[in-house]
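Predict the holo structure. Ligand: ribose-5-phosphate.
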Amino acid sequence: MKIILGPASTALAEKIAELTGYEKVPVACKTFSDGENYIRLKGNVQDEHVVIVQTTCAPQDSRLMQLAFMAATAKKSQARKVTAIVPYLAYARQDKIFLQGEGISVETVAQMLKAAGVDALVTVNIHAESTLSKFPFPAKNLSAIPLLAEYFVQKGCKKAFALAPDKGAMYIAEQAQSVLGGEAGHLEKQRDRYTGQTSQTGKGLTVKGKSVIIFDDIISTGGTIVGAAKILRELGAAHVHTACVHGLLVGDAEKRILDAGVEEIVGTDSVPSHVSKVTLAPLIAKALKARKGG
Ligand code: R5P
């Protein structure tokens, strides 16, 4: 097996290569003046099972094209099998038809990757795991929540209250709770499908005087966490932290979250930034080592 160092995730791919001992294949890449991408694999992949590590956070479309080019180039160079490791899978939130006339964007992405030469995919905390069953190749989802919770244990936050911002994310809070050893709960969140506006309530939550960590798969505009922090403040929580797998932090999201009283934002290197305090490398390396067959 060889690890192709995708340009969007070079540092993560290097760490995975180090942990697994698999040979690295560097990638030369550039963007032409008209915005088009160019990639070249700088290593021999003939007869190899290659693993391309490439996240697809912004600029999503460009990174998806780079991924497709790497997969197609590997296949053209006679790689035996191509597995895409895509920690943040773009378009995963458009996983069903919410309004008439919409499409299922994430399925289109998967079909595009299949056409390019991807044979299997591994992602991390995809918005809805059920999405993967419709992909045209085997696809696996890993969870980084225990790693994020472990970060807080190391910082002395053992027994903190693990909070999910909505009922659908309660499984995330429960995964965190199993590491933190404290309580878990969730807020109620409603979203207007036309405006995208959300509203949250904290009915039945008892967090007075407690340290609370809000866990979510994604922080995008920060609206969900800002709303949750406001409710926690009203309910008398003593400390509020937040952790997410994919810290997209669009615009002034970080400032808004900190201004809302959240003491720390912790993300992973799924989306490389200064809040990526937890690396996914051990999680992905373990999954690669555990794989059966080719
Ligand atoms: C949605 O259901 C996700 O789990 C996140 O809660 C959401 O994507 C966060 O978005 P934002 O930061 O824009 O509120």
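The helical segments are 10-20, 60-76, 105-116, 145-154, 170-180, 223-234, 253-259, 281-290. The two ends are 9 Å apart (CA to CA).
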